[in-house]
């Protein structure tokens, strides 16, 4: 729920990878789901007021509010062309929205418990939703039928998060603790038939990362030896990134499970916190319980930036798909960070003239 105003702030530039605040709306979120749109021009936020809100990133203004859920909205996603939204809620439903009109296109029911996460496939022809009931359900957005076209029920506990890339879906299970797990999903369409091939990465409190490839009928397991809070793929699809409760982020080779890098210094002991890679896979970023976002060089493993977000736990983050911009969430406050513009020769001349 957005209830505040935007506060432009400027921080000093500690490194070349600086991320000063662009604006910071205040949201009532628990936990605070937030994400960039596919093109990075818009921000989606969910709230306990049963609504989701669409914001302009460049202007920092609220564009539209979408209301229709019976309880708090837990997650939302936008289609690649920004024409549709999907959202999920504690009311056990998934809703497909028309962005322009704000109207409900369809309300999908079938989950036995609250729906924690939702996302479109790349073409926005399928919505995938994960629930506390332990299933991921796949919904055809073009079908007249309201039943899921496939149910993935491999999870032993509630599904807490999912993420879809071009060919893959990341999702996972959560027991009584607030952890997240992830898989990968491949969707291939043939005329009106949907063929689903699942290559999945899952995480559980046993400290193992599981990757399922149903095309080959294989299961690959990597042992991390610590409960894993977040898993994601690199942009090139060759690596997986995991964060765990031993305050370590690890980069693994997806095919062999070889450890390629470890990133430490942040604090992650008792919260489900996010990690991610920058849009070009050059940096690793992680939330932290000490109020900072940590940013490491992917290859060297050295800490490049310790970004001061606030005094509480940084709960969520999302990196812009193509630019050096970052979303962070802390106690319901969402901030958009962007790289400082480089100083040009003309700027230097102007400053020198002003001093003269």
TrEMBL record:
<dbReference type="GO" id="GO:0071013">
    <property type="term" value="C:catalytic step 2 spliceosome"/>
</dbReference>
<dbReference type="InterPro" id="IPR020472">
    <property type="entry name" value="WD40_PAC1"/>
</dbReference>
<keyword id="KW-0677">Repeat</keyword>
<dbReference type="InterPro" id="IPR001680">
    <property type="entry name" value="WD40_rpt"/>
</dbReference>
<dbReference type="InterPro" id="IPR019775">
    <property type="entry name" value="WD40_repeat_CS"/>
</dbReference>
<dbReference type="InterPro" id="IPR015943">
    <property type="entry name" value="WD40/YVTN_repeat-like_dom_sf"/>
</dbReference>
<protein>
    <recommendedName>
        <fullName>WD repeat domain-containing protein 83</fullName>
    </recommendedName>
</protein>
<dbReference type="InterPro" id="IPR051980">
    <property type="entry name" value="WD_repeat_MORG1"/>
</dbReference>
<dbReference type="GO" id="GO:0000398">
    <property type="term" value="P:mRNA splicing, via spliceosome"/>
</dbReference>
<keyword id="KW-0963">Cytoplasm</keyword>
<dbReference type="InterPro" id="IPR036322">
    <property type="entry name" value="WD40_repeat_dom_sf"/>
</dbReference>
<feature type="repeat" description="WD">
    <location>
        <begin position="66"/>
        <end position="107"/>
    </location>
</feature>
<comment type="similarity">
    <text>Belongs to the WD repeat MORG1 family.</text>
</comment>
<feature type="repeat" description="WD">
    <location>
        <begin position="34"/>
        <end position="65"/>
    </location>
</feature>
<dbReference type="Pfam" id="PF00400">
    <property type="entry name" value="WD40"/>
</dbReference>
<feature type="repeat" description="WD">
    <location>
        <begin position="108"/>
        <end position="143"/>
    </location>
</feature>
<keyword id="KW-0853">WD repeat</keyword>
<dbReference type="GO" id="GO:0005737">
    <property type="term" value="C:cytoplasm"/>
</dbReference>
């Amino acid at each position: 729920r957005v209830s505040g105003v935007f506060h432009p702030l400027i921080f000093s530039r500690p490194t070349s990878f600086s991320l000063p605040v662009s604006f910071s709306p205040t949201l009532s979120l628990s936990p605070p789901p937030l994400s960039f749109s596919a093109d990075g021009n818009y921000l989606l936020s969910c709230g306990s007021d049963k609504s989701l809100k669409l914001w302009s990133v460049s202007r920092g203004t609220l564009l539209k509010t979408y209301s229709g859920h019976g309880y708090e909205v837990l997650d939302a996603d936008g289609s690649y062309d920004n024409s549709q939204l999907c959202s999920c809620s504690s009311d056990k439903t998934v809703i497909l929205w028309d962005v322009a009109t704000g109207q409900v296109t369809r309300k999908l029911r079938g989950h036995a418990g609250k729906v924690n996460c939702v996302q479109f496939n790349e073409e926005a022809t399928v919505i995938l939703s994960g629930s506390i009931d332990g299933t991921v359900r796949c919904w055809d957005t073009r079908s007249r039928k309201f039943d899921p076209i496939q149910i993935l029920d491999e999870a032993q506990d509630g599904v807490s998060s999912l993420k879809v890339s071009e060919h893959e879906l990341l999702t996972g299970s959560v027991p009584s603790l607030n952890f997240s797990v992830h898989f990968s999903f491949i969707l291939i369409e043939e005329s009106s038939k949907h063929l689903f091939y699942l290559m999945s990465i899952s995480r559980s409190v046993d400290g193992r990362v599981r990757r399922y490839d149903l095309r080959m009928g294989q299961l690959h397991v990597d042992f991390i030896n610590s409960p894993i809070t977040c898993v994601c793929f690199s942009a090139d699809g060759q690596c997986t990134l995991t964060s765990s409760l031993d305050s370590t982020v690890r980069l693994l080779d997806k095919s062999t499970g070889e450890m390629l890098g470890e990133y430490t210094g942040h604090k992650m002991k008792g919260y489900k916190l996010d990690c991610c890679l920058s849009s070009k896979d050059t940096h690793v970023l992680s939330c932290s319980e000490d109020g900072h976002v940590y940013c490491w060089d992917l290859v060297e493993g050295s800490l490049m930036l310790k970004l001061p977000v606030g005094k509480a736990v940084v709960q969520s983050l999302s990196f812009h798909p193509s630019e050096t911009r970052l979303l962070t969430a802390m106690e319901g406050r969402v901030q958009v960070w962007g790289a400082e513009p480089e100083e040009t020769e003309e700027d230097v001349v102007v400053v020198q003239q002003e001093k003269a």
